[in-house]
Amino acid sequence: MRKYRQVKWKNLPKSLGLTFLFGSGAVLAYEILCLNRRFSSLLSDSALEKERQKGDCYITISQPTVEAEINGVISKFTDVEHLMETLMKGPASLGLDTNPWHLLRILKSELPSHAKEHPKALKTLATTNYNAGLSQQIAQACDFKLSVKLARTKNVNLNLFLRPPAYLLLPSEAIEDALNNILKKIPVTHQQTCATYFFRIAQQITSKHKDDEYYLRWDPDTAGIIHPRNIIQIVELYLQALLQLSTTLECSHLMVQNGLLLILWRIANMFDKEVVLTTLCANIVANISLFPQFHHQIFQSGWLGLLAEFLGSQYASLNLAAGKALVNMDQNHRKYGVYDRSIYLLHPLYEDTEDTRKFDTRQGTMKWDMDVVFVHGLLGGVGWTWRQSDLLGKNADYTDCWPRDWLPADIPNLRILGIDYVTSLSHWKSRCPDDARRSTITWRADQVLLSLKLAGVGRRPVVWIGHSMGGILLKQLLVNASKSSDCELQNLVKNTKALLMLSVPHDGSSVATLNLPARFLLLPSVEVEELRKGSSVLGNLNLEFKNLLSHYPIAVVSVVETKPTMVQPWGIEVKFVEPNSADLLSSGEVHFIPVDHYEICKPLNRKSFIYQRLIKLIVGVREGSPPKSLVQTT
After folding, report:
1. CB within 8 A of 43, min separation 6: which ones?
2. Is 616 helix (H, G, I), strand (E, B) or coil?
3. What is the rounded CA–CA span in Å between residue 451 and residue 458?
4. How far apart are CA 346 and CA 383, in angstroms?
C-alpha cells in the first residue's frame, strides 16, 4: 500500500499571509503609478511652478449674489405701498449703500448709469471699516485697475490689499546678500558709474565686517533679530545703486525677473521706522512703474497696500514717492503724462478729489487749466524745501509741503509739480564721482526737459516758481526749450505765462566765490563754480534769457531777501544773494522782504506775502493775459 506524504497544515496560514501582503503591495503600487500618470497628464510641473510664483493666489469664498440679497430684503415687505416708498429712498434703505459686493458691481460696470456713481461707490468701499476677513475677500475680488484706484483714495482701509503669500516671503538669504546677488546679474554700462560706485562701497563694507558677529542672531530676551550695526548703511548703498539702475527698461526687467519687488517689500516691512530706506524702496518701485509691463508684478508682490500706506505718511519724501508710483500705474492718468525720477506730482495725489473727477473721456485729458511747477535750489529737495516755516513753532495745521496742501484748497483745477535733482557744495561731499560731469546747468536743464515732456507739461498754461539755483535752472531749461526743434518743447515756452523768482542769484553769489587756496582745499562742485560772482555761464545765460523775454509775454515777479542767513554749525551770518544780483533781470516786479535765504521759500502761513503774491499771480494768469506791468516789452 502506497504511503502518502503528510502535509504540514500548520505553515499554510503563514504562506497565505505573505502571498496576500506582497500581492496587496503590488496592487497598491500599480494604482499609485496609474494615479500619478493621470494627474501628470492633467497638470504639468511647469504650470504648478507658475502658480506658485503668483502673488495673488488665494482661495475665494463664494458670497450670495446681490440679486439674492435684494430678493431677500424685498420678501420681508408685505405692504406694496411700503415697498415702493422704501425703494424710492435708494440703495441705502435696502442696506446696499455699504454692501461691498453691490459697490464692486457698480465699480466694475461700464454702464453710463453706473459711471456717475463710481466716485461715491469708490470712496464708500475704500473707507468702510469691514472686518479683516471680509476685507481680504474683497481684496481677492479686486483686479489691478480697481486696486490702484482704492490705493489712491484718502483714508483707505489697508486690509483691502493682498499681502504676498507667506511662502514667498520666507527668507532664504540675508537681505544684503539678496541685494548683492541681484546687482551682480545686472550689466552696468559706462553711463551708470554711480550705480557701480554705490555697489562697490556696499560690497567693501559687507566683506570687511562679515565675521561671526555680522550674521543675524536671535536675541531671546527681546524676542527679536539682532542686526549688525551697519546693516542700514549697507542696505542704503545697495538701494542707491538699484535706484540708479531702475530708470532703464532693461535693468528694471532684470530686477523684476530676479525677485527684487519681494525683497523691497521685505525691506520696507523690516525697516519700517527707517524713512530713508522706505523712501528709497518706494522710489525704486516708482521708477519701475514707468513701464506698464511690470504693473501686474507690482500688484502681485503686495506693493499696492504699502504704497497706499505710504501715501498717508507724514513725511513728504515718502508720501510723494508713493503718490508718483500709484499715479504712474493709474491707466486713466497715463494718458496725459507719467513721472520719472526728476519730477514729482504734488497734486492731485488722491483719486477722490474734485480735480481728478474732471476727466474728459472724449479727449483723454484732464480738465486742469494750469500747471504750477516748483524748482528747488542748491542742497534742496522736493521733499523738504517747500515746507512751512517753523519759526513760530509747529501747530496742528503745520505742513511739510505747502504747495501740496495750500494751493489746491485756495485755487482749484491746478496740477502742481515739483522738480527734484541732487546737488552738493564740494566734490568731497558729492554722493558719486560722476556727479561732476552731470552737474552742469546745461546738462541738468536737458534732463529736466525730458522729464517735463513725459509729464505732459506745456500742453496748458504754466506758472513756474524757482528758489535760488532753481531759478537759474528754470531760465536755462526755458532757453534750451526755445532753441529746440521739438514742437512739444516749443509749446512749453509758448505756454509759460509767469515766473516767481525767490532770491535767484542771476549774477552769481559772493558765497560761491572762493580764493585759489580755498578752492584747492574745498574742491567746490560744478554747480558752486557756476554760481560764483561774475561767472561767464551766468552772464551768457542772462543775455539769452533777456532775449527770450523780449519774444514771449512772460510775467516776472522777483522776491529778494534782505536778512543774512545764520549758517550752522559755525554760527556765522552770510548774505547768500545780494539785492542787485536778484534784480538783474530788470523785468516785472521786485519785492524786498525781511527774511533770510532759507525762509524766503517757507511762508509762515497762508497770509504771508510770498504766498499771497503767488496766489495773485496764478489768478491773474487764469483770468487772461499776464499784467502788462510784469511783462518785458521790446
Report:
1. none
2. helix
3. 12
4. 10
Residues 492, 554 contacting (CB under 8 angstroms):
no
- 79: helix, strand or coil: coil
CA distance 127 to 52: 32
Pull the grid cell for residue 368: 486742469
Grid cell 554722493 — which residue? 431
The span from the CA of 366 to the CA of 356, in Å, is 7
Grid cell locating 122: 469708490
Give the integer Cα–Cα distance in Å for 43 and 47: 7
Q: Are 423 and 439 in contact (CB under 8 A)?
A: yes
Q: Which residues contact 541 (CB under 8 A, 6 or more apart)?
A: 441, 472, 475, 476, 479
User: Residues 241, 183: contact at Cβ < 8 Å?
Assistant: yes
Percent of the chain with pLDDT over 70: 72
At which residue does the C-alpha cell 526743434 appear? 485
pTM: 0.81
Amino acid at 62: S
As beta bridge partners, residue 573 has 566
CB-count exposure of residue 358 (10 Å: 0-12, 13-18, 19+): middle
CB distance 343 to 451 below 8 Å: yes
Quickly count: other Cβ atoms within 10 Å of residue 84's Cβ: 10
Residue in the block written with cell 503718490: 323
Query: Cell 497734486 maps to which residue?
Result: 347
When the pLDDT of each residue in the chain is averaged and rounded to a whole number, the result is 80
What's the rounded mean pLDDT across residues 343-372?
71
Contacts of 468 (CB under 8 A, 6+ apart): 376, 377, 378, 380, 502, 503, 504, 505, 576, 577, 597
Is residue 118 within 8 Å of residue 108, measured between CB atoms? Answer: no
Do residues 467 and 385 lie in contact, with contact meaning Cβ atoms separated by under 8 Å?
yes
Do residues 336 and 459 make contact, with C-beta atoms less than 8 angstroms apart? yes
Distance of CA 306 to the CA centre of its chain: 11
**Mapped to the 3 state alphabet, what secondary structure does 501-547 carry?**
EECCCCCCEHHHCCCHHHHHHHCECHHHHHCECCCHHHHHHHHHHHH
Q: Looking at 9-13, 210-214, 499-503, which range is the least confident one?
A: 210-214
Q: How far apart are CA 49 and CA 290, in angstroms?
A: 28
What sign for the dihedral angle of Cα 608, 610, 616, 619? negative
